[in-house]
Design goal:
Layout (H helix, E strand, L loop, with lengths): L3 H17 L4 H18 L1 H14 L5 H20 L1 H6 L2 H7 E5 L3 H4 L4 E4 L6 H11 L4 E5 L5 H12 L4 E5 L5 H8 L3 E4 L10 E6 L2 E6 L1 H9 L2 E9 L6 E5 L11 H18 L23
Helix pairs in contact: 1-9, 2-4, 3-4, 11-12
Length: 298
């Protein structure tokens, strides 16, 4: 049973975010960056995880440069949290002004068969979900990590579904509801680059480090005959808004080799991260699950 304080804390945070979302984006961005600078000093464990990930993945960079990237990440990440109120409550007209969509956004509506949007974990990830709902007629479906606080969990669900024609399923559920939604025409908004353990995964290099990586994108695409379109979301400085790019769909994916396909996805994500390392989600323990006998890297 949840303590009353947990509910009160959730409501207080939502009230703050609701009030905060009325501010001009430039003001929100400045507050977010300031909060990120404070969190860099206060959040010792996440700071250490971030620096360790950067050391493992970008060892060629000087330590000072890796620290600079980490500091910037905390500022962008804090912005993404505080600006969640915009995505949850701002009018569609305001969101359309702030979210700059580029590339082949119309592919999902032209393609008649099953499809998957492949979206790596940059801090602006939720903006990509909003862009899909605001610009694409095809319904969407995704998986999310349920929040331990029920008030915040309900807010996350409402916020991600507020524009309609979308469904989200908890990671604790079976895959059947998601598969059914895809067969009925929903596009699958898939986040392929998190460590969820060894189940249904393989140890595939990510920046040269063995990383437990789900094989589901390849297997699901092959089983359902899906087309895969990469989508990238980045936050822009100050009050400039956000950029969401819909890249060309992959013509030669999937193959008959799920591990090779997963290696390809990881290499593609590496290329995108190198272009904007400050906004990648380095605070996650990407290498938490280790190959048998290998020591922890954290």
């Amino acid at each position: 049973m949840k303590r009353p304080g947990a509910y009160a804390g959730g409501y207080a945070l939502l009230a703050f975010l609701w009030c905060f979302h009325w501010l001009p984006l430039g003001v929100q961005a400045a507050v977010g960056r300031g909060l990120g600078a404070l969190l860099w000093r206060a959040a010792g464990s996440r700071r250490r995880i971030t620096l360790r990930n950067l050391e493992l993945c970008l060892p060629q960079l000087p330590a000072a440069e890796r620290e600079r990237i980490g500091r910037e990440l905390f500022k962008w990440f804090s912005r993404s949290v505080l600006e969640r109120g915009l995505l949850w409550w701002a009018s569609p007209a305001r969101l359309r002004r702030l979210i700059h969509v580029e590339g082949d956004v119309g592919f999902a509506d032209r393609h008649v068969g099953p499809m998957m949007w492949l979206a790596p974990h940059f801090v602006g990830l939720d903006v990509a979900g909003a862009a899909i709902q605001l610009n694409i007629r095809r319904p969407g479906a995704s998986i999310y990590q349920a929040q331990t606080n029920p008030v915040l969990d309900a807010a996350v669900r409402r916020g991600r579904l507020r524009h309609g024609h979308a469904e989200i399923f908890s990671r604790g559920e079976t895959a059947r509801p998601l598969m059914r939604a895809v067969r009925q025409g929903a596009g699958f908004f898939n986040l392929p680059d998190m460590d969820f353990g060894e189940r249904d995964a393989a140890f595939v290099p990510f920046f040269g480090v063995p990383a437990a990586t789900l094989l589901a994108p390849s297997r699901m695409a092959r089983a359902l005959g899906m087309k895969v379109q990469p989508v990238l979301a980045h936050m822009l400085p100050g009050g400039q808004g956000y950029r969401v790019r819909f890249l060309p769909a992959w013509d030669d994916f999937p193959s008959a080799d799920a591990v090779a396909d997963t290696e390809r996805i990881n290499r593609w994500i590496e290329d995108q991260v190198r272009q904007c390392p400050e906004q990648y989600f380095w605070v996650h323990k990407r290498f938490k699950t280790r190959p048998p006998g290998a020591p922890s890297v954290y």
